[in-house]
Amino acid sequence: MTAVNEITEPAALSSAPPGRTPAWWGMVLFVATEATLFACLLASYFYLRFLTSAEWPPSGIKQPELVKPLVMTALLLSSSGWIAWADWAIRHDRQRLLRIMLVLTLLSGGAFLGVQASEYATKLAEFTWTTNAYGSLFYVITGFHGTHVVTGLVMVGFTLVAALAGKFGGAHHERVRIVSFYWHFVDGVWLAILFSIYLSPHL
Length: 203
Hints:
about 75% helix, Four Helix Bundle (Hemerythrin (Met), subunit A), mainly alpha
């Protein structure tokens, strides 16, 4: 009986081997779900593209320009580096560096959305989501991704507020790790979109 009590004591429970928390697995399941949705959208894009024998994009719509998408890619890839650095910083209990990297992540992500808004302003003068199937898929896929960037920025913003309040440390940084994981997912999806929507029509 004494052995059982020793095992169930709070001190014994708190010293259990570390592992992935429910919050981590919740984010993994969320990312898996969202990845499936993006895969379905991109599969629909390629299905319609190869189903039609006409030119792609359809007549009346120019080939996707690459300057802005490549700028957006550079911004997101750099933001992925910033947040990875933030994760490294807090693991080594470097609070100031964590805050700086989170700010840079916010700035890069915000700049991405600014360039995307600029691209939309140009595209909407050429075609809308009701013009044809290509237009619908273009705006749904890129817009859906944009909402994920916004969601990620909200997460990073709340993480920055917590960091400024001193909520993290070398042994308490799970939220940073989870937010970093989500942000890398958003960046990875963008690379798939870049190839599918912007680069593949030029091949």
